[in-house]
Amino acid sequence: MKIAVIGAGAMGSLFGGLLTESGVEVWLLDIWEAHVNTLNQSGLTIEREGITRVVRPNAVTNPQSIGKVDLVIVFVKSTHTAAAAKTAAELVRSDGSVLTLQNGMGNADILSQAVAPGKVLAGTTSHGATLLGPGQIRHAGIGPTRIGPWAAGDPAPAQKVARVLTDAGIETKVTDDVHALIWHKLFINVGINAITALTGIHNGQILDLAATRDLSQKAVEEAMSVARAKGINVEKDVVDHVFQIAEATAANRSSMGQDVDNRRLTEINAINGAVVREARQLGVATPINATLAALVETLESHYGKD
Which residues are known to be catalytic? Predict the structure, then answer.
């Protein structure tokens, strides 16, 4: 199988590196020239629990250098999904698949506008990675990956991709309810990301104060109400699960927190903002998520003005 990974940040580089190690032909596509140059000259350095190794995926800034591929994996920020979708449509073979493992809602729908919906796979991963610098990442955590077809249809393409990922050490299973899966990942992001981004705290510090725990719980419960109104099957222990994730990743800064730290645009519109948009269409009140989204948007708008 020939695979293109659009977005060679921490997670894109991690998946690309692991797949390369398994013998798959991988092409990492990114606009960061220093990173791409380092990958081609020195390889990708992966650090895991103090041990480093180097793998050598192909890396380019121009998608025309790749040719047609069997699978496109999209790992860009949600703000860049529309552009990535156009590139994916150019790269994927007629019988290929496009997989999104991005945070937030709406990415699979955007991809489905550029490629045939039956080609789109979506999912979540519990693997974690940190970008240390050009050509260097830390493999910060290992966990299950779940994928499935975004549109109802043949599960065979998802099963094929799951086997390739599993062979690369990325344990992957296929679900028949990927929409619920995406919502449950969204609940985690809703309960952690905006709060940590706005306050400067680490994930685990959400649990330190009753007030912060209550804020996180209310944001998650609002999102759960929206999901139920859409007919999504919502598990009963969602808030407890969000708190467990916060505890398990206690020392981490959320991806949104890192974006704010580095004065980058966040994915707030695909996370809390997505909850608010869905809620308006359904007539569900989401004042906590609306406030968190407005505050992060305000913070973004003042980058460089302080």
Answer: 185
